[in-house]
Design goal:
about 240 residues
Length: about 240
């Protein structure tokens, strides 16, 4: 990774941050990778419609996950050109097959990244990104270990829901009744381990005091519970394979 920079989490973990670029088909997607010391797993973020890796909500959640010992990759599923065109047509932000295809490639790239040391991958999806995260999880059952949806639209992944094997947590605001109903309907189609957590009084963006903190804590605990404990990394073994 180039242009790496370190930080110290509130839990005392050293966290290495670096920009990354992932080639998907004919485009290059920009992301931000954060890796804490002795990471227990890695979480790939799938942003919702109109959002990006700079979203303060997802960055806050990523910080909490880093401090919990989880690596994170926040990456834009749309290029700048994609975003400019989508501002006028909105034809990509709801194109779940298109988004999930890109997410699958990024998931495989992350799983093979040298800094991951065979860490298991999880998905964190928001809004329409949650649908893409679930479709990609269904397509990559051996790579995606768990999924969390924040205010997501899992109903948009309807055809894939029954094939999702990764334990899935759906987090919805209690003051977001339409999305809450859609999540309940989607959960009924899922056959994997699943759970719906409603945060009372929270709206779709979880902007109410304390709401996003609850989202981050629920996501962190879900991922840590579902991830296996990684074997200690042995640098000598890594050199032997190279």
């Amino acid at each position: 990774m180039n242009d790496t920079r370190g930080s110290q989490g509130s839990a005392g973990l050293a966290i290495e941050h670096a920009p990354v670029t992932v080639a998907v088909d004919s485009v290059r997607l920009e992301g931000d990778l954060g890796i804490p010391t002795a990471a227990k797993g890695a979480v790939l973020f799938a942003h919702g419609s109109g959002s990006s890796r700079h979203s303060p909500r997802n960055r806050y959640v990523a910080d909490v996950l880093n401090e919990g010992g989880l690596a994170t990759l926040l990456i834009d599923l749309l290029t700048e050109d994609d975003q400019q065109g989508d501002l006028h047509t909105a034809h990509l932000r709801f194109n779940i097959p298109f988004l999930s295809r890109r997410l699958e490639v990024i998931t495989e790239w992350l799983a093979n990244h040298p800094a991951m040391h065979d860490l298991k991958i999880c998905h964190f999806g928001a809004s329409t990104g949650a649908a893409a995260a679930l479709v990609a999880a269904a397509e990559l059952p051996n790579l995606v270990r768990a999924v969390v949806s924040r205010g997501g639209r899992p109903d948009l992944a309807r055809a894939a829901l029954a094939r999702v094997e990764a334990p899935t947590l759906l987090i919805v605001g209690g003051a977001d009744p339409m999305v809450l109903d859609l999540n309940r309907e989607a959960m009924a189609l899922m056959r994997c381990e699943k759970q719906l957590q409603m945060i009372p009084g929270a709206g779709h963006l979880f902007e109410e005091p304390g709401a996003l903190q609850k989202v981050a804590a629920l996501a962190r605990d879900w991922f840590l519970e579902k991830l296996p404990m990684p074997a200690p990394f042995n640098p000598a073994a890594g050199r032997a394979r190279s």
